[in-house]
Amino acid sequence: MSAYESFARVYDMFMDNIPYKEWCNYLTGLLKEYEVDDGLVLELGCGTGNATRLLSDAGYDMIGVDNAPDMLEIALEKKEEEGQDILYLCQDMREFELYGTVKAIVSICDSMNYITEDEDLLEVFKLVNNYLDPEGVFIFDLNTVYKYEKILGEQTIAENREDASFIWDNYYDEEEQINEYDLALFIPEGKDGLYRKYEEVHYQRAYELELVKELLEKAGMEFVTAYDAFTKNPVNEKSERIYVIAREHGKKEKLGDWK
């Protein structure tokens, strides 16, 4: 789970091709569809805070959780520059803690794929259910098995820019459904024009939707629906990214019992 140490320094540079505004417009549309128009929202795996800040601009009281201190340091710098009221917490999503419940929890940019064990994903789902308001909404995305098998697996992606370069090798194990990212970064340091090489290894897990449903329900949550990313279309065999929507389950019944 410890990733993005060196990459944090150049993450935003290399991620400038991600249309965060469009992604967040889609996400806020889903939140509003489930009557989450404002209030406390938690983002799991917030990284450098790109989506967190956009959701804050959209009127939500944001909390961002990530386990990479270097990424959160950049998120905090952005927060100070823009004067936003965002709470960032350095926590592992498998054991995150909040002071109370929130209206919604979101997680995008394949953060959930970084959870590589069924038991750990189940624990995340249990915590999500625990920290959501009664019938609160959980929205998260996942890279699909199809994407790892047919698009990323065994591919090398490289980019050479004036300020930094990277080589990203992918190795997908179909049996384990684990994609290994071997990342080599070349970052200029000092005034002599020399580059320093950094190496990181990341792992992501591909999950079948049926297993995700099973784990959500085992965690006590209600699976609502899943979409082919950025549409309202059903998930299909060539979906590369999907969005899953689930609801908190159980608190309303308990409140009724107490009354």
Q: Which descriptors apply to this entry?
A:
7-stranded mixed beta sheet; 33% strand; disordered N terminus; N-terminal domain of TfIIb; globular; 4-stranded antiparallel beta sheet; 11 strands; Rossmann fold; 259 residues; alpha/beta; 8 helices; 2 domains; single chain
What does this structure look like?
Helices cover 31% and strands 33% of the residues. The chain has 2 domains: 7-144 and 206-258, Rossmann fold (3-Layer(aba) Sandwich), CATH 3.40.50; 147-205, N-terminal domain of TfIIb. Helix 3 links the parallel strand 1 (39-44) and strand 2. The chain has 8 helices and 11 strands. The protein has helices at 11-14, 20-33, 50-57, 69-82, 118-131, 145-152, 209-218, 251-258; strands spanning 39-44, 60-66, 87-90, 102-107, 132-143, 156-160, 165-173, 178-188, 195-205, 222-228, 241-247. The longest helix is centred in the N-terminal third of the chain and has 14 residues, at 20-33. Helix 2 (20-33) packs across helix 3 (50-57). Residues 1-5 have low confidence and may be disordered.
First-residue to last-residue Cα separation:
42 Å
Order of helices and strands: HHEHEHEEHEHEEEEHEEH
State the low-pLDDT regions, or none.
Answer: 1-5
What's the CATH architecture name of the largest domain? 3-Layer(aba) Sandwich
Q: DSSP helix count?
A: 8
Number of domains: 2
- What is the class of the largest domain in the CATH system? Alpha Beta
Described by strand count, sense and barrel closure, the largest sheet is:
7 strands, mixed
Pfam families: Methyltransf_25 (PF13649)
InterPro entries: Methyltransf_25, SAM-dependent_MTases_sf
Protein name: Class I SAM-dependent methyltransferase
GO molecular function: methyltransferase activity
